[in-house]
Amino acid sequence: MPQYEVDVYWNSLNMPAYDAEQQYHKHGTSEQYHSEFKSDLDMERLPSGKFSSNYVMMLLGMVSFNLLRITGKQLLQTGAVPGEKRGQRLRIRTVIQNVMYMAGQFVGHARSFALLVFGGYAWTESFVRLE
Questions:
Q1: What is the mean pLDDT of each run of 10 residues along the chain (131 residues)?
Q2: Which of 29, 58, 75, 105 is 20 to 30 Å from the Cα of 92, by its Cα?
Q3: What sign does the CA torsion over 45, 49, 55, 60 have?
Q4: What is the value of pTM for the model shown?
């Protein structure tokens, strides 16, 4: 006896069922971004009781979140990210722990400067390929 699986969505939107399903999945992704902003960037409790101070902290958090998201996206585009990455994005925590905490040495010699990183680290190749 064959088995059939059916997904049924009822909505009041003026869009096809496929588009409604895609919107539903995007909602889950936005919840993940919100969770990353709060937990990975440690923005769960703001530092002050003053709105102006908290506003500045949220703006700085927004800038750092966007920069880390762009970095993660560019790392995936290099194709050299270690491990098995099935998703289309890297978590902020992954980018912070593996790339931002990467040890390096800034060297200046003969009016030229270079950033030296350890070649044996798994994330070095993807970091070096960044544009």
A1: 85 83 81 88 88 94 94 89 78 91 93 91 89 72
A2: 105
A3: negative
A4: 0.72
